[in-house]
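Changelog-adjacent note: as of this version, every example in the card shows the full chain rather than a window. The one below runs 249 residues end to end.
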Amino acid sequence: MKKLEGKVALVTGASRGLGKGIAIAFAAEGAKVAVNYNSSMAGADDTVAQIRKAGGVAESFQADVSDTASVDTLVRSVEAKLGGVDVLVNNAGIVSASPLVKMSPENWDRVFAVHVRAMYLCCRAVLPGMLERKYGKIINMSGSFAINGAENFVHLSAAKGAMTSFTRALAREVGPQGIYVNAIVPSMIKGETTEKMDPAFLEGLRQRYPLRKLGEMKDIAASAIFLASSDSDFYTGQNLCPSGGEVMV
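Full-length structure tokens:
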């Protein structure tokens, strides 16, 4: 039997990158996948098409996950089309570099809205159903900046740190009701983003990691499948760090 057979998974920001890879991996393990996107319909459609081509079940759902009404509509739509959400992956995110002295309040607020507010809204929206069924898996996609920090990314480092604290607090709050809350803390993963980066910069990163290699999508997908499945039924409030040793907690 596949690890996620019979489960419904909602993955935010699944039109590209880690979200896309996780959505495809979940479907391969038997989950019905709700592919959320904000602006990239084409990317979401491609995620759904790949899943269906492989024999899986998926639907795309547009929503700005930093907006309350949009999130509430998203979750109701997923429940109506696929069923109650068993697994939520809070993956939506944005990246923009800026030294703090030049960082606009609008930039700061938008990063927190997409990472932290969206996580709060999505958790709040799916929790009633999870509490009723006394089961749920919530996975928050944090990052190495949450632990190590990074110059020119104070806003993102702070937001990812907030996601880590949120994960631990919510895990304590809902654990007695059978709901698991964990985080994945990846380092740089090879993919669309790294293809546009300076090879010398990437080589510097590789040399900095104790394992001397960058991660691949399969490394993150394996962690996500583990946390979404019954294999992790004694894990909650944890940070799983597929990071090549960049992050050690």
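Structural remarks: The two ends are 33 Å apart (CA to CA).
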